[in-house]
Amino acid sequence: MQALPSLSLWNRWWQTVCAKMPFSDWLLVGTLLALGGSWNVIRADGGSERNCSAIPPYLPSTMVNTTLRLQALREAMSSVNVSAYIIPGTDAHLSEYIAPRDARMAFMTGFTGSAGTAVVTLNKAVLWTDSRYWVQAERQMDCNWELEKDVSISSIADWLIREVSDTDNIGFDPFLFSIQTYESYSYNLVPAKLMLKSIPDNLVDRVWTDRPLIPPDNLIRLPDRVVERTWQMKVEHIRTQMTDNPYKPTAVLLSALDETAWLFNLRGSDVPYNPFFYSYTLLTLNEIWLFVHKDRVTEDLKLYLNSTCFPLAHCVQLLEYEQVRVMLKNYMATSGVKVWIGTEYTNYALYELITPEEKLLTSAYSPVLTTKAVKDETEQRILRDAHVRDAVAVIQLLMWLEKVVPEGKETEMTAAHYVNECRSKQKDSRGPSFETISASGPNAALAHYSPSNATSRKLTVDEMYLVDSGGQYLDGTTDITRTVHWGIPTDMQKEAFTRVLMGNIEISRTIFPSGTKGVNMEMLGRRALWEVGLNYGHGTGHGVGNYFGVHEWPVGFQGNNIPFREGMFTSIEPGYYKENDFGIRIEDVVVIVPAHTKYGHNYLTFETVSLVPYDRKLIDTSLMSPQQLQWLDNYYLTIRELMGAELDRQGLTEEKTWMLKHTVPFQSATASAAVSSLSLTLSALATTLLHILL
């Protein structure tokens, strides 16, 4: 960029103009100046951040012009008498992943990160987001927007208190606010005499003229081979919990998308990476209302749901998705009713209708979510099977990378595409379960980085590589992370990797009483790192579904997760990240199974169902205890038995050879002979026969 003429008088005049010129005029001036060759206001390299303090402002080609959008939104705000409007980055079901048509924050700001909140007043526009996305926001937003490097509601509220008078209204869409979010805003705003105005008709939707449509795909039902409990059985189980509850609810309101999908054994395609569909359910002791886009329910599904019969206990009455508020309001007008909701996933638009208070029963999670968290025998078996097939794809990726990375042609992007392609060839594949995290060198130090055309690095033998990926299958959802090095790792890298592995093993081999909360054992995943002053800044694990969300609440190691029970699945994923250098994460999915103890009963432990070996050259066995090494050898024996059979079944001889090479036991030089070729063959044969019988 060329500098401005160094004439002080010209500079003072120009600065005065800058202070008064609206951004829309800046775009025109910038274009004219660029055409005249004076300044390159908008550059096409895409690799830089905006600079709104420059004269004229510097805008990278990755930015989005939001001038007209903001103008239209402000007109809509004036029409409903609000001076500020809050735009969260979520949907009406408070989902982790949202559909393109729900990306209202991204449409208004140009910022496509997964976390943030935008606020627009009549003369300002501000985005709040966390440190993962500060650079991205500066690359994508134009100078209409300010960036606040915070995500707390108190920070947003403080800004609103400074910018909005006590006679002004602050608008929000109640469908996009959780109960806790609304209460937090109210707590911070009420002392300043500021009030929130609920506007169920979303203002962004009014001005988003090319808003993506709902996918036209019909809903599907799960095949009988992956279902143990029919939807009628599930309904009766939830109704039993209602009648057993001492507060005697007459209805349960289901708002999270996976609640309705689980209850009726249905799946959809409305949300990327998640087989969900827009829906609510109101379940009473003798009626069922399903709120859905009815044109996507086939005649076969209507028959399956008994939707054509008279209102009876097992007849699902289909209503349009948008009718949920009207129906709930009518139900609340009935005497003697009490609605049970899970506060974590019920939006404020529905919550505000459940009045008076004696008609409301709350728990953190609905009985559907807590019931779904414990997999039945069929769900456990098929989820294990899905992880066996998924491990084939990851083994194929790691074997391929070992061969091709030294050639210097592959990138983070090509590796991500390769593992997705490998998964697509496996039985019952339904695509990835999330965007693959394929990261090398300093990119791997960003815990949730995913490669793009602008950021993808070439893979080399001189850097560590982290790949966090997963698949959706008709019988299960997977999530696995492996970290490797194709050259000579440093002592620091080996120690950090080994200590992360030690944390993974320590949790995996733990025996604990049934009902223990994950948060009470989470520190076991960090202890080996803490001993040398290292740590990681993300959670240690999360629940995993059966062809559902890859992050399935309420299972996991956080304080708001429910206690562990037999039959739950969770990930275990400690890590370490050295800024601008490398990142390490080792993630496995485990199932909670009974532990056989000498004296006690009702004790549990974890059994690992992810079946891919760790990088041997990164493991320093001198740091590990005999118990940890024994666990590792037992795990490798399991991989040999289960994956040996599966790789034989798929005719993947080279992959089996690679797997056997990387699962040689650690504890003695002769231990590799412990599992003979004959025993491996017999184990593979027995596993195959058992698989056929089941």
Automatic annotation (TrEMBL):
It comes from the Eukaryota. Residues 382-592 form the Peptidase M24 domain. Residues 602-665 form the Peptidase M24 C-terminal domain. It holds the Pfam family Creatinase_N. Keywords: Hydrolase, Metal-binding. GO terms for molecular function: metal ion binding; metalloaminopeptidase activity. Residues 69-189 form the Creatinase N-terminal domain. The keyword Hydrolase applies. InterPro entries: Creatin/AminoP/Spt16_N, Creatinase/aminopeptidase-like, Creatinase_N, Pept_M24, Pept_M24B, Peptidase_M24_C, X-Pro_aminopeptidase_P. Belongs to the peptidase M24B family. This is X-prolyl aminopeptidase (aminopeptidase P) 2, membrane-bound. It comes from Oncorhynchus mykiss (Rainbow trout).
